[in-house]
Structures are given as C-alpha cells and as structure tokens.
Amino acid sequence: MIERIGVYPGTFDPVTFGHLDIVARSLKVVDTLFVSVAESSSKDCLFSVEERIHLIQKAIEQMTDIDKSRIIVSSFSGLLIKYARVINASIIIRGIRAVSDFEYEFQLSCMNSKLDPEFQTIFLPASEHFQLISSKIVKEVAKLGGDTREFVTRYTKEKLTQAYTR
Fold first, then answer.
1. Separation of alpha carbons 146 and 90, rounded Å
2. pLDDT score, position 151
3. Residue 28 among the catalytic residues
C-alpha cells in the first residue's frame, strides 16, 4: 500500500486550537502529516519561523487521542508544490472557516493543479466551535490585553503575552 503523505501549510502565527483541530482531523485522511510553516509570507509575522515551529511542536505535544509519531513539523520557502514534491506528499490539506476562505483557497488549489495535476487538495471546514478563530484576531485580542485561553494553548498564550509586553 502506498503511504499517503499530506502537507498542511500555513503561517501559524500563532498556532490556534482551530489549526490543531485540522491537524487531528487530517490524520484521518493521511498516514503522515507535515505541518509546514511558510518561511516567506506576505503577512507581517509576530513570531519568527523558528518560534512558530516551536509553538506548534509544544501544542502538538499536549494533544491527546492522536498518534503524534505521524506528524512532522517543518518549514518551507518558495512554491508549496516544489516543497510537497521534496517530501513526497501528494495531498495538500487546507482548513477553511468561511466562504471568503474558500474562494482564496480554491484559487490556490486551481493554481497548484495547473502547476502539477498529481496533487490533490482537501478542504477541511473548521469545526463549529473553531470557525471564528483566526491567528490575526487572536493576536489583536492579545495585543489589547484580552484573554486568549479559549483560542490557543497556555504556552502560546504566555508567548503572546511576552511578545506584546516587550
């Protein structure tokens, strides 16, 4: 049987419970999952690539009821398709919260198919209680001194607080 390798790419600045929900659910579809942090992004990131990788690793360590040995946290730069080839992935996992997410992700999926039709994109809608969580909004809440414990792990919450008190 051919191993199904998937890649879940993103900025993860910071990783949220919504991201972790997609990670857990992706393991039902793939044998090995690369959670891959985009190094070059048009987004202005609060955390460095190394910090984001560390936050994801710490968050995954705390997850229960999943086989953590099937998850690899990494980073990539450049075209996702090129990176996916290097890691032998054939499935791209994308989480979507709203119709606006779908429109953008669908365009990316179409472009990836044009670049290499061998790749399949799977859209996983956010679970109901994670639909409103976005890293951008979590950062804004943290920046303004709000409580983020419903959205991120305790460790990530601490790192957000530290980042905004520098």
1. 40
2. 96
3. no
